[in-house]
Amino acid sequence: MEGKSKEEIRKQLRAKRNQIPETDFIRKSQLIIKLLQQQEEYLAAEKIHCYVSMNGRREVNTHPLIKEMIANNKQVVVPVTNFQEQSLEHCKLESFDDLELNKWGVLEPREGEQYNLAALDLIIVPMVGGDEHAQRIGYGGGFYDRFLQDLKCPTIGLCFEQNMVSELPTESFDIPLDKIITESRIIISQQKK
Ligand SMILES: Nc1nc2c(c(=O)[nH]1)N(C=O)[C@@H](CNc1ccc(C(=O)N[C@@H](CCC(=O)O)C(=O)O)cc1)CN2
Ligand SMILES: Nc1ncnc2c1ncn2[C@@H]1O[C@H](COP(=O)(O)OP(=O)(O)OP(=O)(O)O)[C@@H](O)[C@H]1O
């Protein structure tokens, strides 16, 4: 990936992800979630922020995880896009049925109370690609960069192994995740806070 711009890499990795067959998508997502659920950060967490996957775009499937967490009385918080402000709001999710598609095809609660982010124990982060330094690349809105910059709580990104590269180009505002989980390994940030 050396010499390529973030934009080119993003485009390539998105195209590659779209190719994952349904059966691999389901099976590999299950493996990733199983690994996630073995992590100490997950086991210790009661208040968990989690993206609601766009399964058509082959983001690692978090739907079964979210349903399970709600059933097990974890507090689940999901992002809500504020299109005007180009920022994220965050809302407690009581039931998966409260989600509706927004104009970009992301499932979000239509309304809800802003959540106190300082209380979060863990944030599960969506990715388009990742690297060996636990850096991530997303859709390019900078939403998660801005969301994560002031938070101290652990962050775990979920990514299919095929979308990992050795080194992503980084900019000053890019903050590495604490961990990236793929179906075959766990990448731990060396910069862990
Ligand atoms: N599942 C999930 N939820 C998430 C994110 C995510 O990456 N995945 N986000 C992570 O930030 C936030 C939403 N960010 C998003 C950013 C861009 C697009 C998107 O579809 N963009 C179009 C172009 C849009 C336009 O400019 O009109 C595209 O990429 O095709 C979707 C969500 C919050 N929720
Ligand atoms: N901390 C920040 N403060 C201000 N602007 C930022 C910050 N982080 C990112 N941005 C802006 O957001 C743009 C996109 O960032 P980047 O390419 O890292 O997005 P991404 O991580 O792929 O997307 P996302 O976080 O939405 O999944 C940057 O070009 C920058 O202008």
From TrEMBL:
Keywords, sorted A to Z: ATP-binding, Ligase, Magnesium, Metal-binding, Nucleotide-binding
InterPro entries: FTHF_cligase (IPR002698), FTHF_cligase-like_sf (IPR024185), NagB/RpiA_transferase-like (IPR037171)
Enzyme nomenclature, EC number: 6.3.3.2
Origin superkingdom: Bacteria
Molecular functions (GO terms): 5-formyltetrahydrofolate cyclo-ligase activity
Cofactor(s) this protein cannot do without: Mg(2+)
Reactions the enzyme catalyzes: (6S)-5-formyl-5,6,7,8-tetrahydrofolate + ATP = (6R)-5,10-methenyltetrahydrofolate + ADP + phosphate
Family per similarity comment: Belongs to the 5-formyltetrahydrofolate cyclo-ligase family.
Xref: PANTHER family: 5-FORMYLTETRAHYDROFOLATE CYCLO-LIGASE (PTHR23407:SF1), ATPASE INHIBITOR/5-FORMYLTETRAHYDROFOLATE CYCLO-LIGASE (PTHR23407)
The protein's name: 5-formyltetrahydrofolate cyclo-ligase
Organism in which the protein naturally occurs: Fodinibius salsisoli
